[in-house]
Write a structure and sequence with these properties.
273 residues, 11 strands
């Protein structure tokens, strides 16, 4: 079974709830870290989905064009990296519209996939799915079937499924979880992948595949950069952002060696056959 590899393309300072007005004062490391990932994917013949923050695309359009030209799928991660449930529907609509204009102008291709910053489509912001469908997005990968202080819908389906919207429907591709002792637990991306030992991650993916489901793996370029700047942050954010960064590249290499991966777009095409 082919699993799905997704990259949330944002710089290190964009995922720690810093005000966007401060971003220009931070050292950009997005290009070198993205090229680490691109080189690993090329070495293994893997094509992934890159959910790109359009603020990054605006700053580094050549990087987005390179990713697209290499054959990877481009999805949107919005523009301003805001928690969806903390903004209004009109603000979210404007953010998505702006992101799509930037990404599609760079690549010349329609953008069909979306992932919300911080997986912040929750029960408080399901209205966002209607707006995504209105803007031509055909699939979303924002709903995390776990309970987290920032995100999650614990009782959401663990498999790809269609959700009715106001005028149509949208395919939801949830982040992978393993059900243990009646709870959904995550092993396949971000902090969870950095926290758990590789042998456990490997077993989790095998369990997910054994249920007939592709594992959806996600990571950020900054997670392959243990030397990126350290800031004074609230303890919970500091622990999750900086924990065990030195392990990410090694674990990604192991995953690419032990499992087959494809983009979300390719996975959807297989579902629709």
């Amino acid at each position: 079974m082919k699993n799905t590899l997704t990259i949330d393309l944002e710089d290190w300072y964009q995922g720690i709830e810093l005000a966007p007005s401060t971003w220009d004062n931070c050292e950009s490391r997005i290009e070198c870290n993205t090229h680490k990932i691109l080189d690993l994917l090329s070495e293994n013949g893997v094509y992934a989905t890159f959910f790109i923050l359009a603020h990054v695309a605006e700053t580094c359009p050549h990087l987005v064009k390179e990713i697209s030209n290499l054959g990877h799928e481009i999805g949107t991660h919005g523009y301003g990296h805001q928690l969806v449930y903390k903004i209004s529907p009109s603000e979210f609509s404007s953010d998505i519209k702006k992101s799509l204009c930037i990404l599609e102008d760079i690549t010349g291709k329609p953008v069909k996939g979306h992932r919300a910053p911080y997986f912040s489509i929750t029960n408080k912001s399901l209205w966002a799915l209607d707006i995504l469908a209105e803007h031509g997005i055909s699939y979303d990968s924002s709903i995390f079937p776990i309970n987290n202080y920032r995100y999650g819908i614990p009782d959401a389906p663990r498999h790809p499924h269609n959700i009715k919207t106001k005028n149509s429907s949208i395919l939801e591709i949830p982040i992978s979880t393993v059900k243990l002792f009646g709870r959904n637990l995550s092993f396949t991306g971000g902090f969870y992948m950095r926290f758990f030992p590789y042998w456990l991650i490997k077993q989790a993916i095998k369990k997910i595949n054994g249920e007939g489901l592709p594992a959806v793996v996600y990571l950020h370029p900054w997670e392959l950069d243990p030397d990126h700047p350290r800031l004074k942050l609230p303890l919970r954010i500091k622990l999750t952002h900086y924990h065990n960064l030195a392990s990410t590249e090694k674990k990604l290499k192991a995953l690419l060696n032990d499992f087959d991966f494809q983009s979300a777009e390719s996975m959807i095409n297989e579902i629709n056959k």
